[in-house]
Structure of Phosphatase PAP2 family protein:
Amino acid sequence: MNGPTPHEPVGASLAKRLSAREDPRLSGVVSLLRRLDAADRTVFGAVADLSTPWLDDSLRRISDFANFSKPWFIMAGALAALGGDRGRRAALTGVAAIGVTSFMVNQPMKLANRRRPHRALLGVPETRWVGMPSSTSFPSGHAASAAAFCVAVGAVVPGLRWALRVAAAVVALSRVYTGVHYPGDVLVGASVGAGLGRLTVAVASRLAQRGVGMGCGRGADTT
């Protein structure tokens, strides 16, 4: 069998393909990928082995509830309705960040074609299981959208930063805990989401500044 086994993280399969080229210039990359693969497996196994049945139901519910970015859209709606001008700006920026991130993660990045963890083989208790998504595993869309919204809204409403970070971290943890993602999927997803969240904030800020500038210019013409 040339491809990865159903429970093999992407690092191992990529390392195999690169090592097959027998190019000494790639030896460092192959070694790094194998170390990352080993770390991914070790952390996933450690989480699967946690004896925390009291967390199973709550994290399973959180993981399911986070499908389609529901918590973040609900929060955006609350901000828009109750937060005044700043709340509406935060909601718009947060939703825009989710949109950009979802496109990037679910389109070009999913082409990495990493298989989902095989929960039964890897020892994840069935009491934790949620529906296994049909999409590929790398990177985690849940973690990416959570991080993007957290960063974007936190930049506009700094008082919400820590609450949002905790919420995003719990969602990210739930994806590993329920066995639908490797830790590496979540870490990369969160990193990508945070970066795209910052980019969205920067673009929104630039557009707002241009709008103010043009508004001032029009005002000066009419006085």
Q: What stands out?
A: The chain has one domain: 53-222. The first helix runs from residue 10 to 19.
